[in-house]
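Possible race condition, two jobs.
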Amino acid sequence: MRNFVVSKQDKQPMTSKTRVLFVHQEIAPYLPETPMSLVGRYLPQATQESGKEIRIFMPRYGVINERRNQLHEVIRLSGMNLIINDTDHPLIIKVASIQKARMQIYFIDNDDFFTKKKYLMYDENGAFCEDNDSRCVFFTRGVIETVKKLNWSPDIIHCHGWISALMPVYIKRAMNVRDNPLFNESKIIYSIYDDEFEESFKAGFEKKMKLPGMNAKDLKYFKEANYVNLMKAAIDYSDGIVVSTNRLNPEIEEYLVASKKPFLSYQDQVHYAQACNEFYDSILEKQ
């Protein structure tokens, strides 16, 4: 997987650094190695080595060992409450470093949604977590609010995994985000994997995830929030799509082609990172 790293001869001189925000569902070594978690580990490193500035976010799942991975809370970024369904949920931000790659990873944490759950998306009985819908909302909004606190304006926001599927619509449509100059020029890239689930979120998800500025058209795919509809919404509100699986759901593939959105077709490990960075540049050139 070290093929993800861009070689020195691929680096390009830049007068001002392009800023790339990575929003990941999984990152190795904090979680077991999978195609998605290895992308989370090596794509940001390759992007940084190509001359871009990066920030990286992922959920702080309860299976992550804080002591072994040296996570610590960032007090200045923590302390906010996010309201979901009229309930306050404390937002805790933690950080860890991958020294070898000179990268910092920010973790979105909350006791009820992440820390106390010693599993990812399926519980100890193999059942889809009942609150995955709320976790999806909390994680995405937590990333946005933390980036605001960092006062760091990304040129590209690259989302990986369905837990980040609300990021495109929030950035493009939610009024409290749209009015923030940090995101005015941000371009959204969404990566589609083979992380499909068969279940649907509970009824009323469109009300739970709605933020000011979103209208009925923005909510249409969230009334029946299954995997396919989450991907369709992500496609609609993204500026570009990366196909990160060679087993793309046929319905999603058909929708992607019909959308006429720019997309990067499936790449092997050797060419993946360089192809993604060239795709970022092509999306920014269209501004």
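Job #2 (started ~2 s after job #1):
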Amino acid sequence: MIQYNTIKPKVYIETTVVSYLVARPSRDVTLVARQQATQQLWAEYADNFEFVISNVVVSEISEGDPIAAQRRCEVLADLTVLDMSLAANMLAQDLIDAGAVPQNLMPDAQHIAIAAVNGIEYLVSWNYKHIVNETKRQLINEVCHAAGFQPTTLCTPIELIEEIQVKEKIDTRTDPVLEECYRMKEAFAAKFNSMQELYDYLVAETEKNKALGWKYLPPPKPQNEDNNEV
């Protein structure tokens, strides 16, 4: 199938995801499901996205047991780290002030703010208390919008995988009519190097088609032109 979007969406990997990724296998049904989903996202869908982190993540995963901390750091070693910024710091404070994130968990506010300020499409987390919390998502989005930033989609690895699978079902379905239409559109677009070239071509085609009897609706008059009429 023709691929039109070659830019991979970015996914901010929050600390809880890393912990599940390297944690020892569990017998708890819920934990097993989260571990498997995290591993699946990492192993099967890494090519769909560009995974990124921040220094907040690096600092948090460095805490605790030294051996576990080393495993967490090693698995993230090749990922891009987003720089901190004044804008992200201000947005994090806005999230705290609005009650979207508790005052005593400022790093969680930083995760959300850094992702939003950097235009990251997704933030994956297992932190149901303060990040992927259904009762807080709307407020988080409102705070981000008010600060002038497009909110990042906050989701669990399971939710992100489900979204990918839905898109794959739509995008990978072969539709010969659409495929032929796409080829036609690409062939036509390739004839022009600028918008002006396309415009000039369409003007010429308009005159030619009018002569052949095609009926054309004239464009509406500019509003200021109507206001000037007596």
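DSSP finds eleven helices and five strands in the chain.
Logs attached separately.
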